[in-house]
């Protein structure tokens, strides 16, 4: 996944945080960018599951995946 490859750069780039902060006022640090991206990705996946855009007849419990990801504090 592209995000995984860019994670080290994203979490250390203060300039990126400043740039994003111009459009998303609560983003002040690289950690805020990580939180923003992680939350967007999880919420987007949950939305797609709920709208059956990612529904798989063999895996109806797929909606639990974003829940498990959000609960993972590792």
Structural features, described:
It is a single chain. This protein is mostly helical and 74 residues long. The protein has one domain. The protein is 62% helix and 0% strand. The protein has 4 helices and no strands. Helix 3 runs antiparallel to helix 4. The longest helix is centred in the middle third of the chain and has 21 residues. The model has no long low-confidence stretch (mean pLDDT 78).
Descriptors:
4 helices, 62% helix, elongated, 74 residues, 0% strand, mainly alpha
SSE inventory with pairings:
Elements: H1 2-10, H2 14-21, H3 30-50, H4 64-71
Helix pairs in contact: 3-4
Largest β-sheet summary: none
Q: Structural class of the secondary elements?
A: mainly alpha
> Overall mean pLDDT score?
78
The tally of structural domains comes to 1
String of helices and strands: HHHH
Summed up, the helix count is 4
Helical fraction equals: 55-70%
Q: What is the first-to-last residue Cα distance?
A: 19 Å
- Overall radius of gyration: 15 Å
Number of strands: 0
The backbone outline, from C-alpha atoms, is elongated
> Unreliable stretches, pLDDT < 50, 5 or more residues?
none
Strand coverage percent: under 5%
């Amino acid at each position: 996944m592209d995000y995984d490859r860019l994670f080290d750069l994203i979490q250390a780039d203060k300039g990126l945080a400043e740039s994003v902060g111009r459009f998303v006022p609560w983003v002040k640090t690289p950690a805020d960018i990580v939180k923003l991206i992680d939350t967007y990705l999880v919420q987007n996946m949950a939305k797609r599951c709920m709208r059956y855009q990612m529904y798989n007849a063999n895996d109806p419990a797929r909606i639990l995946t974003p829940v498990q990801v959000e609960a993972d504090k590792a």
